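Appendix B, Record 12. Input sequence as logged:
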Amino acid sequence: MHGNDTTSAQRLAGLMADAALGLALAAALAITAFAIADSWGGGYWVFGCATGLVLGVLALLRRRHLARAAVAGLTVAAIAVLVARLAHLPAEPAPATTLGLSVLIGSAIRTLSIPWASAIAAGGLALFAGSALAPSESTVTMLGVAGWLAALATGLGLRLLDTHRQAAAEQVRRDERLELARELHDIVAHHITGVVLHAQAARIVRRKHPERLDDSLAGIEAAGSDALAAMRRVVGLLRDTNDAAPATPGPEQLSELVARFTGPTVRLRLPEEEPAWPPEVTSTVYRVVQESLTNITKHAPHARAVTVDVIQDRPEITVEVVDDAPPAPARYPRRGGYGLVGMRERVEALGGTLSAGPCPDAGWSVRAVLPLPVQERR
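Logged structural output:
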């Protein structure tokens, strides 16, 4: 699986939304041409459709530079209204113009900084309010005001939703760091205990067998180096929870985790050789498998089997969890929720990579690759 699967799904959703917007703009242009030609006759419809077409193109290209597109849209619409009044043409923003402006204003309110979003929203209000106050066709004018209100409500609603999601994701990251700090305490305590024991042994050896003192000092040096290496890999990451992964090396915790799993049948495949991983790597492997199984329970109730592969290839460890759930519409972009954020935070903290996404035929895959520290490459 590839790490950009979710991004690709988001791009596809954006393309589909733009395609729908293009169809709506085409329909609005047709309505504009028909209405103006029917009421005014001749070629008066050309000016209104040209304005709507320009606003529609700006709306479709808004993702490249939203602020410029929104300002350009308001400017074009204002100039069009002024020219139309001077030329005694229909000056109210036509349906296509209203649709393009509404998309630009709503996108600006959702995405841009508060000053920019406020300015663009105020500019749109002034434009539509000016049309509403002038003598005009009430239906077209009210359509413009309704479009501005819809843009304001949609933009604010999506902005609040995005803010909530960002806050939730940041909370997950903070939680993951706090848990790693708890594990750091256990790891350092383990290594420091080894240093103390080696130091006590060195004092005894110095009195009875001075010639063997170098071996004891070498043991102290190795234990201290291991402690520093472990601290460098997880220091600065803070977390504290009651559901922490174990920090002791060995695959037995994974077997117990799989045995406790109440979902579909799980096939666990571990390295043939007894692994000797650092505690922080062991706990991360455990965490990836734990979160993946939890996500299967939540998001793939129709899965019948799960495969958990843990492969050690000397310089790195690969963990892959795959289920066989049938594909479901709109499932893939959201699969994993904020648990995926926590897993990625932990894996990347150790210099690894994590990818998640749908399998080619059916099911979902989570794949983490963790590098082993240099001293573990034996």
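Residues 236-244, 330-334 have pLDDT under 50 and may be disordered.
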